[in-house]
Specification:
The protein has about 375 residues and is an alpha/beta fold. About 30% of the residues lie in helices and about 20% in strands. Bound molecules: pyridoxal-5'-phosphate.
Length: about 375
Amino acid sequence: MSLAAPHAELLAIVKADAYGHSLALCAPAVVRAGARWLGVTSVEEGLSARARCPQARILVIGGVFPGQGADLLRHNLTPVVWEHVQFDELETAAHAACVPAASLAVQLEIDTGMSRQGASPHALPQILARFTPASPLRLEAVMTHLFAADEADGVVTADQLARLDQALSLAASAGLYADWLNVGGSAALLAGLASPIAALAARHGMRAMIRPGLALYGLIPPYDPSFDTPEPPTLAAARNALRPVLAWKTRVASLRSVPAGAVVGYNGTFVATEPLRLALLPAGYADGLDRRLGNRFSLLAGGQRAPLAGRVSMDQAVLDVTGIPGLEPGSEVVILGSQGDQTLTAFDHAEASGTIPWEVFTRIGSRVPRFAV
Ligand SMILES: *Cc1c(COP(=O)(O)O)cnc(C)c1O
């Protein structure tokens, strides 16, 4: 399946170190693949993306804080705005930098129902009034986030788009017209919403932009079959077509044989009931190997599942590799990904550690080196 959305401009979300995949590798890769826009959460992340991608447009989604306006301007980052304090900060920084009127492009977020960020309908008239002709700010895009794009009946999304439609009409009645309508992430894209979003944009003389993150990394939002609202069929098809791009591997540091009765790891939570062969791994919870996996999850060694014996330490973990032939110091161990005919997914990790898959790879530690393969 192609991820191309003929109806919309793609803004590639590379926040949180490209979802743990490495901003340094992924941001230049998506730009080489044709993305003109990158999306990050903070000004700090924006500066890091700018150092790697000098030409890209970079959208800072999570808001600009007091004192960050100057950096934002200097590095040509594009802020999402919705609060008066953000306008204050940007206006102050723009005046200090002698930026002419209407030259600092911003994206205005509208809260269409998620209650997370964005101008609420009652606050919108006052926020729109900040775009005076003399303001250094220029309304380049209107943005909102869809929070139920993975629900097949589309009722929530239709309601959100109706609220967005009203907000755009309100802006038009204030004489404000933006170039872009920036709506939704991977779920919206894969549920086929690019086309209705583009239609809404066109009705207001705008072009559509869509902001996938997960799908770029071969991942899509989880679907829980017990969920009371079925998912759109295109989303189910995408789930089968996408493959996660990330694998996380380590190596056996050393091997030892222990007798029955040996205890393994902090507080001796694992006791050998027979002679065992143990492999030490140089990966622990500081690397993102969740401590809750100790004694309840297996990694892949020698093409087989090898249980984690005892507690996961900060820097190390121990695998029970009894009966797995051919292992020696340096042998590959797969934490996430495939080995032989076995595969461990972020979903498997998440189920065992009681979280969601996205947390698994966004928490892979910064000291774990990333390589493009
Ligand atoms: C993280 C994020 C996205 C990307 O969402 P995915 O589900 O990863 O595609 C899009 N928009 C906003 C506002 C986000 O915070």
